[in-house]
Amino acid sequence: MKMRDHIIISGSADGTVKVWNGESGESLHTLCGHIDPVSCVFIHERRVESGSRDHTIRIWDIETGQCLDVLTVQLHNITYIHYDGERVVSVDGTDSGTLNFWDPKTQSCLITFPSPIYQHIQHSELKGSRLLLVTGTITVWDTGEPIQTITHLQIYTQGQ
Question: Which terms in the Gene Ontology molecular function aspect does this entry carry (predicted)?
Answer without folding.
Answer: ubiquitin binding
